[in-house]
Amino acid sequence: MSHESKARNEESRISLNGIKVETWKDSRQAVSYLEKYVSTYSSQQGYEGYPPSIFIDDVLYGLGVSIYGPSAEWHGGYQEFKVKLMEYLLQTTPKCKELLSGFQMDEEVKHETKQ
Q1: If pLDDT is split at 50, 70 and 90, which confidence band does 4 have?
Q2: Most buried by CB count within 10 Å: which residue of 18, 27, 45, 62?
């Protein structure tokens, strides 16, 4: 394996709590999926009226599936991807840690995260 290939291979991993997680085996495949996924958005009836939260969730869902494949699909897979994304953001974005350090979860959220 060339030095360049080895470097790219290392870049294709994200460390989550000290565990290396393969993000994708073929970045072309991931990009192709994401491009197709996003290109269908304008064909959805009523998308112009979607609030930003739905647009964000839809794009994050497509990103998760493009990176992790079927394991990130549907509600359960998407929830797991959001946890991975949050862990990644906490590791790579100091401001996220700072913002969350003072965050108090209400009892309903605490209960949901324990299940």
Answers
A1: low
A2: 62
Nearest to 68 by CA among 9, 14, 11, 4: 14
13 near 21, Cβ under 8 Å? yes
Length of the chain: 115
Contacts by 36-44, CB closer than 8 A, 24 or more apart? 37/62, 37/65, 37/66, 38/62
Both tokens of 24, joined, read: 């994708």
Report d(CA 67, CA 12) in Å as an integer: 10
Please give the pLDDT value at position 61: 93
pLDDT tens for 77-114 read 999 999 999 888 888 888 877 777 766 655 555 545 55
Q: Are 85 and 60 in contact (CB under 8 A)?
A: yes
Q: How far is CA 18 from the centre of its chain?
A: 18
Q: Specify which residues 13 forms β-bridges with.
A: 22
Two tokens, residue 52: 């930003």
Say how many C-beta atoms besides its own lie within 10 A of residue 62's C-beta.
Answer: 19
